[in-house]
Structures are given as structure tokens and as C-alpha cells.
Amino acid sequence: DSGVTQTPKHLITATGQRVTLRCSPRSGDLSVYWYQQSLDQGLQFLIHYYNGEERAKGNILERFSAQQFPDLHSELNLSSLELGDSALYFCASSVETGSTQYFGPGTRLTVL
Amino acid sequence: GNSVTQMEGPVTLSEEAFLTINCTYTATGYPSLFWYVQYPGEGLQLLLKATKADDKGSNKGFEATYRKETTSFHLEKGSVQVSDSAVYFCALSDPQGTGGFKTIFGAGTRLFVKA
């Protein structure tokens, strides 16, 4: 158990819908990272937040957005969902930027 | 841009065989390099890391050496066990000017170890 929690574990929704994925970092960790894992694209970095501020952006679509709240939990919002958004979404946390990342168990999103 | 290339799998070995999974990278500057392992149905776990050239990362019998001259970070283990069956990802940490970090992963190599 990494200490990072993600909810929900599974999510099934329809095209065009909007969903919110939640991540609670390990106690004391200030950085949160989001990743998408799919069969065709592999593991892709989406975004990095540090203490509430966005610090780095990867291949994140404009339909996706994220934020980190004052209590350091983070949410990833996915809107206008398409079939191709079906994937495993992981979050990870670290004490400082660049230090060892601890991954949560992931949220499996299925878009029908 | 920065990238990571690792050998395609699956790799199938018998128990106690020697394991090598090749990983090469392209990067400007001096990134940190990592190996992560993903067991079925789980998230990624850090296996080992190296932060500068010639550093050797090691954990649970696995080793990898940061070779700047060949831009490589190959994973090795002298004697694999059935419990090592998993997907292994090579990755590099790409610092951004904003103080953030992007982690770039290879495609992953699935390892099957037979008893």
C-alpha cells in the first residue's frame, strides 16, 4: 500500500459525459502527478501540481483539467468524453518536486 | 524532445535465469533515471533509481547503472523468480523550467517467469 488513494476504482460512463477522478496524496506530500495508461499510448504524463500550483503539463487534452486543493487532494476532470479516453488513470505523489513518486492503485475509466 | 526506448516484450524466462531488459534514453541535460514495476491490477512501484552518471541503483536483487556514454540504463537480475513476473517500465525525470517535473516512460516490458 503506497498511501496514495484514488476514487472511484472503476467508472463506466457514456460518450459526451463529464467525470471527476479524485486523488488523496500520502500524508505530507506536496506534489501530485496525474498519468493516463492506455493500450495504444502507454503511460503518459498529464500534469503536475505542487502545493496547489500547476508546475508542469504533459500531453493533457483541453477537455481535461485538474486542480489541487488547499488540503492537497487533487481532482482530474474529464469532459466531453470520447471512446478513446477509456484508460487507467493514475495519480502519484511525492514530498518535493523531483523526489520519489508513490503511485495510487488507479481509476479505470470505461467510456461506452 | 526527451524519450525512453525499452526492449519489447514479452520476455519469458525460466526460474533462476539471468534477466536483462534494455533501456536507452534521449535527453538534454542530466535527467534522473528510474525503473518501475507494475504487478497485475496494481499501480506502479519504484524499483530503483539513479540520479547521475555512473550511479548504480539496486533493490531486491535488481540493478541498473546510469551510463551517460551509451545513454543507457539496462535492468539486470542474476536469478529471477516466478514472483518477478510483472511489467517493467524504464523512465526519466525531465525537470521543467517552472520547477515541475515531467516523467517520461518507456512502453513497458512484460516479464513471464516459469517455474
Q: Your description of this structure?
A:
The complex is a heterodimer of chains A (112) and B (115). By secondary structure, chain A is an all-beta fold. Chain A contains no helices and eleven strands. In chain A, the strands form two sheets. In chain A, strands 2, 4, 5, 6, 9, 10 and 11 form a seven-stranded mixed sheet that branches. A four-stranded antiparallel sheet of chain A has the order 1-3-8-7, with no helix packed on it. In chain A, a hairpin with a 2-residue loop joins strand 5 (42-50) and strand 6. With 115 residues, chain B is mainly beta. Chain B has strands at residues 3-6, 11-14, 19-21, 23-26, 32-38, 44-50, 56-59, 62-65, 75-77, 86-95, 101-105, 109-114. In chain B, strands 2, 5, 6, 10, 11 and 12 form a six-stranded mixed sheet that branches. In chain B, strands 3-9-8-7 form a four-stranded antiparallel sheet, with no helix packed on it. A two-stranded antiparallel sheet of chain B has the order 1-4. Chain A binds chain B through residues 2, 4, 31, 33, 35, 42-45, 48, 50, 54-56, 58, 90, 92, 97-98, 100-106, and chain B through 32, 36, 42-46, 49, 89, 93, 95-96, 98-108.
Assign the structural class of chain A, choosing from mainly alpha, mainly beta, alpha/beta, alpha+beta, or little secondary structure.
Answer: mainly beta
Shape descriptor of chain B reads globular
* Whole-number mean pLDDT of chain A: 94
Note the run of SSEs of chain B as H and E.
Answer: EEEEEEEEEEEE
Task: Kindly report the average pLDDT value of chain B.
Answer: 93
Ends apart, CA distance between termini of chain A:
31 Å
How much of the sequence lies in strands of chain A comes to: over 45%
Q: Please report the distance between the alpha carbons of the first and last residues of chain B.
A: 41 Å
Number of strands of chain B: 12
How many helix segments of chain A? Answer: 0
What kind of sheet is the major sheet of chain B?
A: 6 strands, mixed
Return residue spans of chain B where pLDDT drops below 50 for at least 5 consecutive residues: none
Query: Which regions of chain A contain 5 or more consecutive residues with pLDDT less than 50?
Result: none
Helical residues, percent of chain B? under 10%
- Proportion of helical residues of chain A: under 10%
